């Protein structure tokens, strides 16, 4: 008698975020050999976080957290010394010490915060506002979005303060559903999912009413001849600071030029070429692959302002 054996596989994510209050924030756990386990935070950085956020269908990686920020896990520790380039489709394809090989305990679990909101159709920190609803993205009605909501969106994405709220699908009409709730942020929340929400919209909206938002850039070029040349400064914790020139190269410069909409990188300059500044030095030994959407995703400080980095972009895409 001929016997047929059937195998039915159900697609499930091989990574999850736990105890963070939502699908896009929490302790990183991976599924291996049928069991969920944690990751050590050794060398855990924004490139690794970017892979997790992409794999989960969340927005940008906005923070990497160690020391079991979201509480210690239990069970096996599956990964340590994770090293992603940032372009991988799944965390399991990143290099690591090997499955189950580690030198840490559950007090050193890695965590991630991804954004539950994104800006689409514009340069970095500008675009059509879309919020994560379950596991799908939905647009937001312009009549139900105000300055307080904008403050939270810009903050969650690591951008500067809101510059302009735009209605009437200024960044193009979205697809899929229009979000069925009204945001009622107070303006001081760190993430959209923490904002109070009404049960229903006050207005009958379509994609013709998709709201757009322009936030201030999170990176800028200062003291050059235009906005596309100068000392590199990044916004972190509400304060502008500089970047050290250790390992600063054309791949790093390419990310900044693209983030600012300034065309190709022409030159990567160190030794405070455009003058030193005071204040914090936020980044050192930046190691971009060149494909990142933002400089903050390249983080991998032991210098002074005499080493502030600078660069020159082609400027062909600049708007003065």
From TrEMBL:
Disulfide bonds join 40-104, 53-114, 84-94, 141-205, 154-215, 185-195, 288-298. Residues 1-20 form the signal peptide. It holds the Pfam family SRCR. InterPro entries: SRCR, SRCR-like_dom_sf. This is SRCR domain-containing protein. Residues 15-115, 117-216, 219-314 form the SRCR domain. Gene3D superfamilies: SRCR-like domain. Keywords: Disulfide bond, Glycoprotein, Repeat, Signal. One of its GO terms (cellular component) is membrane. The gene is CD163L1.
């Amino acid at each position: 008698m001929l016997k047929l054996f059937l195998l039915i596989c159900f697609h499930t994510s091989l990574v999850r975020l736990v105890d963070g209050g939502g699908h896009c924030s929490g302790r990183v756990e991976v599924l291996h050999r049928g069991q969920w386990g944690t990751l050590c935070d050794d060398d855990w950085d924004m490139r690794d976080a970017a892979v997790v956020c992409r794999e989960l269908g969340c927005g940008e990686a906005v923070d990497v957290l160690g020391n079991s920020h979201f509480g210690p896990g239990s069970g096996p520790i599956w990964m340590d010394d994770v090293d992603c380039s940032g372009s991988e489709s799944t965390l399991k394809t990143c290099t690591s010490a090997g499955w189950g090989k580690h030198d840490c305990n559950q007090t050193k679990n890695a965590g991630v915060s991804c954004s539950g909101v994104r800006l689409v159709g514009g340069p970095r920190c500008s675009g059509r506002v879309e919020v994560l609803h379950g596991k799908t993205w939905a647009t937001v009605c312009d009549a139900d979005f105000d300055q307080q909501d904008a403050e939270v969106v810009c903050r969650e994405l690591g951008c500067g303060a809101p510059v302009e709220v735009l209605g009437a699908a200024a960044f193009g009409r979205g697809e899929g559903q229009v979000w069925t709730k009204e945001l009622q942020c107070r303006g001081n929340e760190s993430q959209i999912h923490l904002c109070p929400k009404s049960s229903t919209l006050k207005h009958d909206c379509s994609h013709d009413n998709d709201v757009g938002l322009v936030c201030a850039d999170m990176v800028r070029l200062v003291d050059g001849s235009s906005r596309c040349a100068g000392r590199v400064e990044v916004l972190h914790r509400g304060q502008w600071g500089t970047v050290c020139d250790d390992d600063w190269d054309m791949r790093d410069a390419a990310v900044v030029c693209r983030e600012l909409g300034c065309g190709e990188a022409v030159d990567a300059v160190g030794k405070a070429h455009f003058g030193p500044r005071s204040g914090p030095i936020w980044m050192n030994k930046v190691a971009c692959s060149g494909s990142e959407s933002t400089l903050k995703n390249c983080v991998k400080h032991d210098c002074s302002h005499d080493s502030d980095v600078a660069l020159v972009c082609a400027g062909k895409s600049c708007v003065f």
